[in-house]
Amino acid sequence: MNSSSRLDATFAALADPTRRAILARLALGEASVNELAEPFAMSQPAISKHLKVLEGAGLIARGRDAQRRPCRILAQPLGDANAWLETYRRFWEQSFGQLDAVLEQMKRERAAAPPAPTRPAKTTAAKTARGAATATTKSTKRKTP
Amino acid sequence: MSTDSLKIVAQGDREIVITREFDAPRDLVFEAWTTPALLKRWLGVFGGWSLDVCDIDLRAGGAFRYLWRNAEANLEIRGSFSDIQAPERIVGSEQFVQPFVSDEAIGTTVFEERAGRTYVRNTVRYSSQAARDGALQSPMEHGMRASYAALDVLLEQRDPQ
Question: Which of A40, A103, A118, A83 lies closest to B137, judged by CA?
């Protein structure tokens, strides 16, 4: 499999919540089909079907022991998918961290000068926000000791 | 790993779902999300990038445009809103026009308030699986960092017991 179609298989396998839960369980250590089926209230054949998809995507491997055939998680394909998601994640993580700071300031400004109760906040906020944000930023800075 | 409540999951073939909790009432989060002067202070503004142009015509049928610059490159997204329910919901289409022209994606952002906190769920539906997977490689990011945080995202850690 080339890296692009392997990623396709990884994402397809991860799209199902039961399969993600199985992987979460296997992240804690290897388990047999019976042990995996237990918490899911699913039949063993249903779990086996999910395991086949995960195995096909190279996310898990099955042991050779004919009786137990324990499943274990494989790190590499997950690592690739992680790297892809990770770049995207960092964009939002950094942005939202800054949004937290903006919201903190907005809350302080609101506490200092509550909006007039007669005016609906929604419409005035959208229309005057650019100017208001600049003005209130300045007023907050003045109050900071 | 921080206590950050950010979750990003690939959903189905074509979607990415981003969820995050904010310690602020919904109308403030909505205002920060839709006001250019405020967006310029938080959206993608790090690592040398600034949001130089941010035009938003916040109504159904209205257009929006974001242009980021750093020392070497421009990044631009344009789109238009199809539904605005302030402060609850924004639906719109968007596409990159710089540094490349991408297919259009449909974004739905839902703001829910519970006990003074706001829960934002942003679902982006791409035109194809290839477009979705491509978007996960944001051109604004370079360094790739292996971290257990990303494993949390993928596995949506849940207690199997």
Answer: A83
